Amino acid sequence: MARANDEIEALLQEYADLIAITGGDAFRARSYEKAARAIGGHPTDVSTLDAKGLREIPNVGKSIADKITEYLTSGQISVVEERRQSIPAGVRELMAIPMLGPKKALVLYEELGISSVDQLLDAIHEERLRDLKGFGEKTEENLLHGIALMQKAGSRILLNAAMDSAEQIVAELSRIKGCEGCTYAGSLRRMRETIGDIDILVAADDSAPFMAALEALPYTAEVIAHGRKKTSIRTTKGLQVDLRVLPPDSWGAGLQYFTGSTAHNIRTREIAVRLGLKLSEYGLFDAESGERITSATEEEIYERLGLPWIPPTLREDRGEIAAGLRGELPDLVTEDDIRGDLHTHTDLTDGLAPLEEMIAQAAARGYSYYAVTDHAPDLAMQRMTKEKMLAQRERVRALDRKHRGMRLLHGTELNIGPEGEVDWPGDFLADFDICVASVHSHFNQSRHALTGRLVRACENPYVSVIGHPTTRKIGKRPGIDADFDAVFEACARTGTALEINAHPERLDLGDEDILRAKRHGVKFAVNSDAHSTTHLPYMRYGVATAQRGWLTKDDIINTWTLTKLKRFLRPGN
Ligand code: DGT
Ligand code: CA
Ligand code: CA
Ligand code: ZN
User: For residue 96, what pLDDT is reported?
Assistant: First the structure.
């Protein structure tokens, strides 16, 4: 149900892992890994390509092209299935633990016979891992963290995966005759960073055709409940979808109720009670006579409660009701307000697309400026040099204004080292238009050290943006343990913006940290951190996260005009 590219990327990545843990050729594993990334980041849907088109994808040769074709025709890749069978099921369960990885999972199985998460927890508590090569006290701590993260995430999925599915379902159902309205509600409409299940609403007099259509979708694996008002299914990926069909005249009430959050709904119902009214998913009623007052639109319901319409991204009971009653809701930033992207990569480092393609796609999004920020040399894997950077700058300058007049900024993503140092000295940094600086390693330093490190990066006069500030990966890696109030204070003091990294696996800063940072008077930059042209549209998730943090466009430097932005980036000039 996701793009075929994403499905194949996941399968080939799994294949690479399987090769690695079954003692296969590391070079071969690596080549599958590279192909997986290239396919995931390829702008064209692979299901529309012929054999020749497939082989034009970087890192894809005949053997991989054949596997893609096999997947597109049969829905599976037989060699991947075979390799799976050769691994004990328990080890596959262990491989899924963030921060463990396939190799260590196999060591645990072979050396200690551990083949489940419960057995692993026992072994950690009995300190049986300590004698294993490559395992120590720190590993135990990391594993406990990883298991906790996995259990906390439970079966929740990332925002973009839920959104892709929901948008397909809404498109399908909207085509059915008698559909007077169709949208997604619940946590997805509120754009939470992870989604438990998808809630779809339809307005129609007759529910039967919609329920039948949901059950008949190609990716419906199981019908959990079937009714006249509500049907629930599970997709082949294990994701639950609840469909509710509402009478058209109670659309607004249903939408308001099923958008939630529950905490927000409790507040709106309390207000109704105080006004002598009763609010339910069917409408707003007079408590005494039972007469229906209104139910057709959300706007009317909020208005009758004495409130302006409240954007779904604010409906978390974080003060939005009080602010609404006072008429002080923030004028939230929207994706249209974004004038450019300030953190992006190309194939000069670990991006997948050439500079020209990234720029052409950015221009097609209507940006008026765009920053190219490839990695600097301290991430040694990327083999960056001053010469390469300067050569790229020439190419960037040559492309400036060449696409719809879009202005280009030449920048870099610096690495914040263990002491807060960055890759290059000030005289070299001074010639960049923008420097983003981010932590990419040494996550386990002390709180004191991590805080000092980030503060020092803020104090670097050439650093204008701190990239993915907590470094968390949702469901995979916790954020670093720094004193972020001290970091936010340093950002405000030094005029350094905090990134809201829009990649759905990061969303970093997240909503609660944004709210905290804003109280310190910090500015923000919402960036895609795109490593391929297909990542540029992630901007929408970053903007939604900014909304959940109550940000207006004034708070966000990449909604500003280029002149104002440049003043922020180089206050002296
Ligand atoms: P999720 O699915 O865990 O990501 O989160 P939601 O917010 O989508 O929750 P879900 O799917 O259980 O329910 C959808 C909405 O329905 C929820 O946001 C508010 C409404 N709702 C569900 N149960 C209750 C309830 O017991 N009381 C009230 N007031 N509203 C509820
Ligand atoms: Ca839900
Ligand atoms: Ca639900
Ligand atoms: Zn980056």
Answer: 75
Q: Which residue out of 195, 234, 258 has the highest number of ligand 1 atoms within 8 Å of its CB and is therefore the one to mutate? A: 258
Atom number, ligand 1, closest to the C-alpha of residue 197: 2
Domain limits, the chain = 4-153, 157-246, 251-326, 335-569
Q: Where are the alpha helices (DSSP H) in 275-319?
A: 298-304
- Averages of pLDDT over each 10 residues, the chain, 573 residues: 82 88 84 92 90 92 93 89 80 77 81 86 87 82 81 82 96 98 98 97 98 94 95 91 97 98 97 97 96 95 98 98 97 98 95 96 98 92 90 98 97 97 96 97 95 98 98 92 98 98 98 98 98 97 98 98 96 58
Classify domain 4-153 at the CATH topology level. Answer: DNA polymerase; domain 1 (1.10.150)
Give the predicted TM-score (pTM) of the model.
0.87
Distance 243 CA to ligand 2 centre (A): 10
CA of 529 to the centre of ligand 4 (A): 5
- 350: CB partners within 8 A, 6+ apart: 375, 381, 382, 531
According to DSSP, the β-strands at 497-501 and 465-466 are parallel
Looking at domain 335-569, its CATH architecture is: Alpha-Beta Barrel (3.20)
157-246 in CATH: which number? 3.30.460.10
Which ranges constitute the DSSP H helices of 478-549? 484-494, 511-519, 539-548
Quote the ligand 1 centre to 168 CA distance (angstroms).
22
**CATH no. of 251-326:** 3.30.210.10
**At 245, is the secondary structure helix, strand, or coil?**
strand
Q: What φ, ψ does residue 140 adopt, rounded to 5°?
A: -60, -45
Three-class DSSP labels, 218-239: CCEEEEEEECCCEEEEEECCCC
Residue nearest to atom 8 of ligand 1 (CA): 186
Decide: 283 and 253 in contact? Cβ < 8 Å: yes
Residues 226-258 as b/e (b if ≥16 CB within 10 A, e otherwise) read: eeeeebbbbbeeebbbbbbbbbebbbbbbbbbb
In contact, 497 and 525? CB cutoff 8 Å: yes
* Residue with token string 């979708």: 217
Give the burial class of 211: count Cβ atoms within 10 A of its Cβ; 0-12 exposed, 13-18 middle, 19 or more buried: buried
DSSP string, 177-213: TT--EEEE-HHHHTT-SEESSEEEEEE-S--HHHHHH
Mutational pocket test of ligand 1: of 262, 310, 315, the residue with most ligand atoms within 8 Å of the beta carbon: 262
Token look-up 């204004």 returns 401
Our measurement of the distance from residue 169's CA atom to the centroid of its chain's CA atoms, rounded to an integer in Å, reads 20
For residue 509, is the peptide bond before it cis, meaning its omega torsion is within 30 degrees of 0? Answer: yes
